[in-house]
Design brief:
There is one protein chain. The chain is an alpha/beta fold. The protein has two domains: about 110 residues, NAD(P)-binding Rossmann-like Domain (Rossmann fold), CATH 3.40.50; about 180 residues, Rossmann fold, CATH 3.40.50.720. Helices cover about 30% and strands about 15% of the residues. The chain contains nine helices and twelve strands. The strands form two sheets. The chain has a seven-stranded parallel β-sheet, with helices on one face. Helix 4 crosses helix 6. The longest helix has 19 residues. The radius of gyration is 21 Å and the shape is elongated. The two termini are about 25 Å apart. The relative contact order is 0.12.
């Protein structure tokens, strides 16, 4: 069996590959260091999201049967050209959940404890105490998307004594959630939530889902956190909501155009915390990604069900 593996982690993978497998390496542009015409497995890497890279590999591997992508979101992968091929796609759902969940807690604490303001006062050498600092306890958190990331967020938020609502395509009771509702039913919960976290995949149904109507329905003291994809939010509507104080503020780890252009007004809004799509970063993510691929490779070789198979029609 021949594999296509990312050049960045080839040295770490090679000692763990079965002795009867061979491989060629692929770089970030889709260049291969050997013949992939008989390759049936492709392991792409975290930054191999450009369609040109993906299409180049597809053209080089006509017998490809299984593609594992370590990223959770696959919207950039599911191009018309990709969907023409009968390829099993698995993703890295779950490997980023812990660092992202920790970032969400950090965003909420930063807002509740006014850490950005306090740090600014420190740089100005000002001893000021006449502003409100809140607790997370007894606050309501709404998590839109209760997959692996949403569940890790809930586990940590519950430890702070928060009330937690969630939404998912097929609602069911979940640990640490006080209530889980179905698609679009989360809108009726907006007026109860001080914190709203976007943790849903980007699909045709979720694109621009956080629009002016949704933002108008949120509490004026609500804080929006996006650790998913920028296109889920209607950015002009969000900009207006923040400028006109429809909501209290937002933490944005994902934006429509990345990197965020220097001229974007989001950079200078006092009620916005911008981070450069880094909430998933952790040295342990690479370890988890390789372990997941190797486990799935064993399953694939023995004809067992693979973990994290993507429903290409649903988009996740």
């Amino acid at each position: 069996m021949k594999l296509i593996i990312p050049i960045e982690v080839a040295d770490k993978l090679e000692p763990h590959l079965p002795s009867d497998t061979t491989f060629v390496r692929a770089d970030i542009d889709g260049n291969l260091d050997g013949d992939a015409t008989d390759a049936e497995v492709y392991f792409s890497w975290l930054y191999y999201l450009k369609p040109t890279t993906l299409h180049k590999v597809l053209e080089s591997a006509p017998q490809l049967r299984w593609h594992h992508a370590p990223n959770a979101g696959v919207n950039n992968i599911l191009t018309p050209k990709y969907l023409e091929r009968d390829i099993i796609l698995t993703n890295g759902a779950g490997v980023h959940a812990v660092p992202i969940a920790e970032f969400v807690i950090a965003y909420m604490l930063s807002y509740a404890k006014q850490l950005l303001k306090l740090h600014k006062l420190q740089t100005q050498q000002q001893w000021q105490r006449d502003f409100q600092i809140e607790e997370l306890q007894d606050k309501t958190l709404l998590i839109i998307g209760t997959g692996g990331i949403g569940q890790e967020i809930a586990a940590r938020a519950k430890a702070f004594g928060m009330r937690i609502f969630g939404s998912r395509r097929h609602p069911q009771p979940l640990p640490n959630f006080d209530k889980v509702v179905g698609t679009n039913e989360w809108k009726a919960l907006l007026n109860e939530a001080e914190y709203v976290v976007i943790a849903t995949p980007l699909t045709k149904e979720t694109e621009s889902m956080i629009n002016a109507e949704v933002l108008r329905s949120m509490r004026p003291d609500a804080y929006l956190i996006n650790i998913a994809r920028g296109k889920i939010v209607d950015e002009p509507a969000l900009l207006k909501a923040l400028q006109e104080n429809w909501i209290a503020g937002a933490a944005l780890d994902a934006v429509f155009t990345e990197p965020l252009p220097p001229e974007s007004p989001f950079w200078t809004l006092p009620n916005v915390f911008i981070t450069p799509h880094c909430s998933s970063h952790s040295p342990k993510v690479k370890e988890r990604s390789l372990a997941l691929f190797l486990d799935n490779l064993t399953r694939y070789r023995h004809g067992k069900p693979l973990r994290n198979v993507v429903d290409k029609n649903a988009g996740y």
